Amino acid sequence: MDSASVIEQALETAVSSCDVLGCPPRLAAAIRYAVFPGGAWVRPKLCLAVAAACGARHSPLVEATAASIELLHCASLVHDDLPCFDDAAVRRNRPSVHRAFDERIALLVGDALIVLALQNVARAFADHPESLPGVMLALTRAVGAPVGIVAGQAWECEASTPLEEYRRSKTGALFIAATVGGALAAQSDPTAWRILGDRLGEAYQIADDVRDAIATEAELGKPVGRDAALGRPTALGEFGIGGAVARFELLIAEAIDSVPACAGAEPLRELLRQEARRLLPESLLQRAA
Description:
Blueprint: H1 3-15, H2 25-35, H3 42-53, H4 60-80, E1 90-91, E2 94-95, H5 97-100, H6 103-124, H7 132-143, H8 149-155, H9 163-185, H10 194-214, H11 217-220, H12 226-230, H13 235-258, H14 265-279, H15 282-288
Antiparallel strand pairs: 1-2
């Protein structure tokens, strides 16, 4: 199967554990709504690609880790869209969870998805207890404090927000979890893969800043112009559009160069090039010029 099919099946396995007798029906429906249909699945695809580069192409442990990373990402989107944060009416070209259900259910869905992500890897690694602590630690670091996605959201509640720390927490943390988690699930040394996640995380956030400023709602599947409306710190404020694009291209080049020498290095590097073109396609760059 291709990576998208693998991820979809792994997510279905995880989410179906909530579709059982005894789970509040609206909560179960909202969890499924938040996860399916998915977006680009950048983070779980990256996890699979790193694991494949390490020699673990078809591994239930890797697939569960990738799915859990996507569940954490979905949780962050549900919470990010809430009225107390972005108050976004649309996500993935349809009503956001709090609009489709209500604010109370959306808050609980985000919480439930974080717990489900950890339960999912705990079940998958039950017969491999030697590998579980490292993967669990990578995931919990990515979601909590001091530098996970919860911390990233909390920076938006402060009087002033340091841009580098904000980016590292809100976006970079899950990318690092994807690269480090993929290596750990493949039972490889994760040290060399951390810089890849770090560079990609910053690049992705810069691309998101650019897209929020110059893309259309139809292109993004969510409201645009929210950074400016909410006074969020962005790469455009730091570098300008031209400088932000140049910084993005530098980070992608550094990410590609950071891929360690291994059997799957070149396919992974090509995947990174393709993702860069998807994030900031030529049509969008022409608008930025």
